[in-house]
Amino acid sequence: MTESIVTVFRGPHQPDTDITAKLHALETLLVQAAAEFADIRLASSLAAEDNVLFDVVARLKLNISVFSLETGRLNAETLAVVPALQAKYGKAPTLVHPQAQAVEAYVSSHGQDAFYDSVELRKACCDVRKVEPLNRALLGAQAWITGQRRAQAATRKELPVREADETRGMVKFNPLSDWSEADIWTYIRRFAVPVNALHFEGYPSIGCQPCTRPVTLGEDIRAGRWWWEDPTLKECGLHAGNLNRITALKSV
Ligand code: SF4
Known about the structure:
It is a single chain. The chain is an alpha/beta fold. The protein has one domain: HUPs (Rossmann fold, 3-Layer(aba) Sandwich). Helices cover 37% and strands 9% of the residues. It contains eight helices and six strands; from the N terminus they run H-E-H-E-H-H-E-H-H-E-E-E-H-H. Helix 5 (100-110) packs antiparallel against helix 6 (119-137). The longest helix has 19 residues, at 119-137. The chain is globular, with a radius of gyration of 17 Å. Mean pLDDT is 89; it is low at 1-7 and 246-252. The structure holds iron/sulfur cluster. The site of iron/sulfur cluster (SF4) has 13 residues, from helix 6.
């Protein structure tokens, strides 16, 4: 059954699904990607999907490095995932921080929470705290992996499993593209994967603390991210290709 874009977040409370075929496809894809690219990296937001990918990489002992963007505005619950992963797997994502000077310049020019004032100032904050650190974290890589899913948002409806990241000149994999929320939680229960405690408090998608709220009945599962903005424009620059696909669809 196809998961609706507009959905009720049931997350941890959903019944198990049969993920046999999807799990086989996921493991095959990651094994092949690790063989194809000598330097391939997983960008982990420390949310449920990325922890699933972290578990596969660890279980299959794949040569895929993992990093997380520590923006300086994350929730304590999100940061608590790092030692939880360390405790279970004996390793955790490398934390990548924004450049202190750039953060200071933004805060002194606009104020710490200026992202509420305009889309431009929000994107400028994401540039400093997320996009520049991501680009730095991917320097020298041939490919990278994300935990994005099609069912997460209007901007992700056409998300392919493999795409060209033209901005960064590398290949980008979205191996969970066709996984449902229920599939993710089935995997998490089966393999006892550590998860962010906020998922149990109505947060299906978790970003920086001041830019994320829980979702309510019937909302898009990324509705809690930058909830004051147009839902078809809500990407932070990490996944610019999603907006390009939406723009192309709107123009036909
Ligand atoms: S999500 Fe919010 S706090 Fe985090 S980098 Fe973007 S605008 Fe800044």
